[in-house]
Amino acid sequence: MRAHIITYGCQMNEYDSHLVESQLVSLGADMVDSVDAADFVLINTCAVRGKPVDKVRSLLGDLRATKARRPLVVGMMGCLAQLEEGQQIARKFEVDVLLGPGSLLDIGKALESNERFWGLQFKDELHDHIPPPPQGRLQAHLTIMRGCDHHCTYCIVPTTRGPQVSRHPDAIMRELDMLLEAGVQEVTLLGQNVNSYGIDQGKRVPGIPSFAELLRMVGASGVKRIKFTTSHPMNFTEDVVLAMRDTPAVCDFIHLPVQSGSSRVLRRMAREYTREKYLEHIATIKKHLPNAVLFTDIIVGFPGETEEDFQETLSLYDEVGYDNAYMFIYSARPGTPSYKHFEDLPRELKTERLQRLIAKQKEWSIRKNSAYVGRDLEVLLRGDAHDPAFLEGHSRGNHPVVVPKAGGIDRPGIYTVRVEHATPHMLYGKLLDAEGRVLEPQPVAAPEAAALSSPLPML
Ligand code: SAH
Ligand code: SF4
Ligand code: F3S
């Protein structure tokens, strides 16, 4: 069998795609990188907003047309598969295999079955399962929990991924050991709400440490860099910040989604914190980690959001001074409380607010990024940039970084980079040698041609 997986959605879906891919390989499949080359195409779906659902619909339309021409098995996994909405789409487009986020290990059974196979249970076996490490990669994701116990009124995730289940630390540490053996140097711990690790459905789970303790355990493993996502402000506690401060491998990077700067909107979202409480958390972070890089998620145009509410989001942005933000227009998702109870705001109003927020984000990102010019950063370069004369990667603060290859450094690794130029999205710099001297890239034969193909903006 030649299999191809197409992944939408968040890092959890990327992790799950890797997990299913390794199952497929162990069943003897060859992984191929296009639909044309495949006889099994599996789409890992996202349902968090309307757009990713539309994309799946159009892709499934194309696949149904392909299926009419040649033998092809079509599968759908992930968040949308778990929803009634997704199952209707699957029926319409003649999907053969459907696996919800809790039934991924049924992939073998699904392919053996001669009939349509739909797996929609949340099975415990997934939590102890350890997928083989990704090959030749310096970065890896590591799921520490699945599901979500919150009920933010706009969000479909608790329905798609079920209640929160924390993974046992033994499974996490075994998976980490395997990642380290395979050469991984940066690990990102994944959960919808990592700060409530070890507290499932409001109860502390025996034998499972707190997230702060887990960070210290992972830090003691020898991994060079640790990141984690996502933190929920409601469960955010100072002990996590202290564990970050005391554990050198943990990067000073925090993704703390605020969603809105207005306490009134936050209440309607059922986020369970106020603007003031959120700002207290930010103050705690800045007190212990003065160099912390702060990212957030913001939804604009939540039902009932007034201009005053939106102004509060803009002013909160200024108060925190985020390095970057993921910004979304509210998308009414069938099955969520806000879909049922609130009226959607006009599209133009939401778009206009998003544009104003993006302007704010750019202003801050360029200001924050420019402060790194002239400074040296530890960068994990994961491989060639678009132009193979350059390498690309990420700093400890998750800034994308591009450098020219120089001094014989042309392969992935962790290096020191002197930042020379910043844009709102990117830092550009040069590699340093062990003595801290700048490594100039080798002169190229045709300078005009090189300048044309360089991803560097004209300085
Ligand atoms: N568990 C994480 C978020 C997971 S979803 C947390 O609570 O922080 C990722 C982001 O998608 C959310 O932070 C939110 O900003 C956005 N999002 C979720 N549902 C949405 C919706 N219905 N419309 C627009 N954005 C949404
Ligand atoms: Fe969705 Fe809220 Fe859970 Fe995040 S915490 S996944 S936004 S319900
Ligand atoms: Fe992720 Fe989308 Fe599911 S954001 S958790 S893949 S709904």
TrEMBL record:
Q: Which InterPro entries match?
A: Elp3/MiaA/NifB-like_rSAM, Methylthiotransferase, Methylthiotransferase_CS, Methylthiotransferase_N, Methylthiotransferase_N_sf, MiaB_methiolase, rSAM, rSAM_horseshoe
Gene Ontology molecular-function annotations: 4 iron, 4 sulfur cluster binding; metal ion binding; tRNA-2-methylthio-N(6)-dimethylallyladenosine(37) synthase activity
- Cofactor, how bound (note): Binds 2 [4Fe-4S] clusters. One cluster is coordinated with 3 cysteines and an exchangeable S-adenosyl-L-methionine.
Root EC class: transferase
Tell me which CDD domains the record gives: Radical_SAM
Q: Does the keyword Iron-sulfur apply?
A: yes
Query: What cofactor is needed?
Result: [4Fe-4S] cluster
User: E.C. number, please?
Assistant: 2.8.4.3
Binding residues for [4Fe-4S] cluster 2: C148, C152, C155
**Residue ranges of the Radical SAM core domain?**
134-367
Q: Which UniProt keywords apply?
A: 4Fe-4S, Cytoplasm, Iron, Iron-sulfur, Metal-binding, S-adenosyl-L-methionine, Transferase, tRNA processing
This protein's GO cellular component annotations are: cytosol
Recorded hits in SUPFAM superfamilies, A to Z, give: Radical SAM enzymes
Protein origin, superkingdom: Bacteria
Q: Does the keyword Cell inner membrane apply?
A: no
Which residue numbers delimit the MTTase N-terminal domain? 1-116
Which reactions fall under this protein's catalytic activity? N(6)-dimethylallyladenosine(37) in tRNA + (sulfur carrier)-SH + AH2 + 2 S-adenosyl-L-methionine = 2-methylsulfanyl-N(6)-dimethylallyladenosine(37) in tRNA + (sulfur carrier)-H + 5'-deoxyadenosine + L-methionine + A + S-adenosyl-L-homocysteine + 2 H(+)
Could you tell me what this protein does? Catalyzes the methylthiolation of N6-(dimethylallyl)adenosine (i(6)A), leading to the formation of 2-methylthio-N6-(dimethylallyl)adenosine (ms(2)i(6)A) at position 37 in tRNAs that read codons beginning with uridine.
NCBIfam families per UniProt: miaB-methiolase (TIGR01574), MiaB/RimO family radical SAM methylthiotransferase (TIGR00089)
Subunit composition and interactions:
Monomer.
Protein family membership: Belongs to the methylthiotransferase family. MiaB subfamily.
Query: What's this protein's name?
Result: tRNA-2-methylthio-N(6)-dimethylallyladenosine synthase
Q: Output the lineage of the source organism.
A: Bacteria, Thermotogati, Deinococcota, Deinococci, Deinococcales
Q: Which gene encodes it?
A: miaB
